[in-house]
Amino acid sequence: MSALQRAHDGVLEQSSDPGIRELDDLAWLLDARWRIPGTGIRFGADAVAGLIPGIGDAATGLISAYIVLRAARHDVPKHVLARMVGNVVVDTVVGSVPVLGSVFDLFFKANRRNVRLLRQHLEKTGRPHAR
């Protein structure tokens, strides 16, 4: 599915900035890649990897930390970075609970939240690539 299809699917808005699109794609892969048939519930690699005890959530937590690191390079204020880190910590800790953690991952979607926070920051600062 292309980014344009995802945008039409209501999953993501397109960004003109390749760096933001890359983070959108990564967040989409982790949080919303697939849909449970017959429902509007989307899930991604984070929920699937969470089924692997111990390793899965740690691995996706590292990828989520990469998104926060990339956001920090866009001069995101510390209080917003703290929210992003909190989202990753909650997702990793609660997501590590066997089975229930994967159910939590279906609904929490920390990576999409963090990309949304980054976009909001870029829009507030008037950066042209925020959309």
Features:
mainly alpha; transmembrane helix; two-stranded antiparallel sheet; 7 helices; 65% helix; transmembrane; 131 residues; 2 strands; 3% strand
Concise synopsis of the structure shown:
This protein is mostly helical and 131 residues long.
Question: Would you kindly provide a written description of the structure presented here, covering whatever features stand out?
Answer:
The chain crosses the membrane at residues 43-68, 88-108. It comes from Nitratireductor mangrovi. The model has no long low-confidence stretch (mean pLDDT 86). The protein has a domain at 18-76. The radius of gyration is 14 Å and the shape is globular. Helix content is 65%, strand content 3%. The two termini are 20 Å apart. It has 131 residues and is mainly alpha-helical. It has a two-stranded antiparallel ribbon. It has helices at residues 3-8, 18-31, 45-49, 55-72, 78-95, 100-108, 110-124; strands at 34-35, 42-43. It is built from 7 helices and 2 strands, in the order ααββααααα.
Question: Which SSEs are present, and which pair or pack?
Answer:
Elements: H1 3-8, H2 18-31, E1 34-35, E2 42-43, H3 45-49, H4 55-72, H5 78-95, H6 100-108, H7 110-124
Antiparallel strand pairs: 1-2
Helix pairs in contact: 2-4, 2-7, 4-5, 4-7, 5-6, 5-7
